[in-house]
Design goal:
Domain Tyr recombinase: 165-298
Family: Belongs to the 'phage' integrase family.
Order of helices and strands: EEEHHHHHHHHHEEEEEHEE
Number of strands: 10
InterPro entries: CB (IPR044068), DNA_brk_join_enz (IPR011010), Integrase-like_cat_sf (IPR013762), Integrase_catalytic (IPR002104), Integrase_recombinase_N (IPR010998), Integrase_SAM-like_N (IPR004107), Phage_Integrase (IPR050808)
Structural class: alpha+beta
Helix content: 40-55%
Number of helices: 10
Keywords: DNA integration, DNA recombination, DNA-binding
Number of domains: 3
Shape: elongated
GO molecular function: DNA binding
Oligomer: single chain
Length: 298
């Protein structure tokens, strides 16, 4: 039941509603009514709209909804993903669309936004921004805040194809062989790293997260169940891959396995300790003083 009180020469009405995202009961108010009846009727109308699931349609802006949504979303995703989501929201979506009411955001408005983004940023950046917006609006539909997701079937054909091609560097087999040969230096960490990535198709983060215990020299297999993730500009962490399909085993050819074993024997002289199975595969040595040897992640 809305409550009315007099403030100066006008009246204020307060009413309650249930936040469909958090499930919490919240209060809202409005001032400036000339009569008690006018204020009370306004409050009753808001409570009726709330019961019908339509109140939020008139309340949220794109900015206010996204900021509320990400606070709950970030608890269910990795730190790195949350950081990327916030960049998409704060640097891309909010500056362009933030002030628009969520219920009044039209498909044509969003399509224009995407076209403009494609002119300024990489295809990958735009796709991430679109993924964040689409996911947020799916949640809004599920919670009956809006009726449909206007990001569906968005057109990305305005992409600068030449620019996209420049960003995709694909090496032929002979080129890769020449590259690897140029790195053929005994017990060189870069040689081992690029050889392993080239011959297994590992992602950079997967390779850097490898521990010696992940390599089975008998079955000639690599166990992939973790990856290095960038938390911020200078901080990294080892965590689980984004998807279950990323957890897998990869067969190793004899040449690659031989090189890895040579690298292991070399590390035994300087780096590996008793619990070598839990140590990172790609460690390097950096001498600060003649008597002081430091090892760090590659």
């Amino acid at each position: 039941m809305p409550t009315v009180r007099k403030i100066g020469s006008t009246y204020q009405v307060r009413w309650y509603y249930t936040d469909k995202i958090t499930g919490e009961k919240k209060q809202s108010s409005k001032n400036g009514f000339s009569t008690i009846k006018e204020a009370r009727n306004y409050g009753k109308n808001k409570e009726t709209l709330n019961r019908q699931g339509k109140l939020y349609i008139n309340q949220y802006t794109v900015e206010s909804y996204l900021l509320e949504w990400i606070e709950h979303k970030r608890k269910r995703i990795s730190k790195k993903s949350a950081e990327n989501y916030l960049v998409a929201i704060n640097k891309h979506i909010i500056p362009a669309l933030g002030k628009k009411k969520l219920s009044e955001l039209k498909k044509i408005d969003y399509q224009k936004f995407i076209y403009k983004e494609l002119e300024q940023f990489s295809f990958r950046t735009v796709k991430l921004t679109h993924s964040v917006m689409s996911g947020a609006l799916n949640n809004a539909v599920d919670n009956e805040i809006i009726e449909r997701n206007i990001t569906f079937n968005t057109d990305f054909s305005n992409t600068n194809k030449e620019k996209k091609k420049e960003n995709q560097i694909l090496h032929k087999k002979k080129e890769l062989q020449v590259f690897l040969k140029s790195l053929d230096i005994p017990n060189n960490i870069y040689d081992i790293y690029f050889l392993l990535v080239a011959n297994t198709g590992l992602r950079a983060g997967e390779a850097l997260a490898l521990k010696w215990g992940d390599i089975n020299f008998v079955s000639k297999e690599l166990n992939i169940d973790k990856t290095v993730k960038k938390v911020n500009g200078t901080t990294f962490e080892i965590g689980k891959p984004k998807t279950e399909s990323s957890v897998r085993k990869i067969n190793l050819d004899d040449y690659t396995l031989k090189k890895i074993e040579e690298w292991k024997n070399y590390q035994k002289q300087y780096i590996l300790k008793k619990d070598w199975e839990n140590q990172i595969l790609f460690l390097y040595q950096r001498r600060i003083e003649k008597s002081h040897l430091i090892t760090e992640p590659f």
